Amino acid sequence: MRVAIAGAGAVGRSIAGELLENGHEVLLIDKAPTAISVERVPQAEWLLADACEITSLDEAALQRCNVVIAATGDDKVNLVVSLLAKTEYGVPRVVSRVNNPKNEWLFNESWGVDVAVSTPRLMSALVEEAVSVGDLVRLLRFSHGDANLVELTLPEESALAGTQVGDVQWPQDTSLVTIIRGTRVLTPTREDSLEAGDELLFVAAQAREEQLEDLLSVRRTDTAR
Description:
Elements: E1 2-6, H1 10-21, E2 25-30, E3 45-48, H2 54-59, E4 67-70, H3 75-87, E5 93-98, E6 115-118, H4 119-131, E7 137-142, E8 147-153, E9 174-181, E10 184-186, E11 199-205, H5 209-217
Parallel strand pairs: 1-2, 1-4, 2-3, 4-5, 5-6
Antiparallel strand pairs: 6-7, 7-8, 8-11, 9-10, 9-11
């Protein structure tokens, strides 16, 4: 997979290193000569250019990229890069960094963003996850379809503890994608049982989050079906 990253600062270089270790082809783009540190990520391609300029993106051959990541420290730049990547070059997947939480509402499909990553939101989510059992924590927002990646740690008092995944009547527009149990990461099947203390990761429509939280957190008198 070919990935272009706009912004070769600490964030961009870290992402590039991870992707390269996983066997992907990476191009780092930055307009600041001081940011071009080839020796720090020698396996990557480097381009000294303004990622907001069409001529620069032509030189980067953005149309050959499977993913573009807008990782600069400037939200305006990240929005422009995202929009150009999606509308001018038809990049299938555009991921954008949100620096200021007040701007998060802008990072949606109208600006070409498929996935918006807000560092402050992720940090607060991690804090909430560390202290909250039974509370739904939003980890990541997906622009298309108004869906989010959410997490909930199943409390001991939940009526679903001990219930098989296939026997639960999940809300519409929700999907259980992962069960984290201790050090194990499980891909759930219908026969897997839910256990108190399980960290459950869902992709869910925002409108269904409250319903999902109620289902998992509250001890109910009726039997899950």
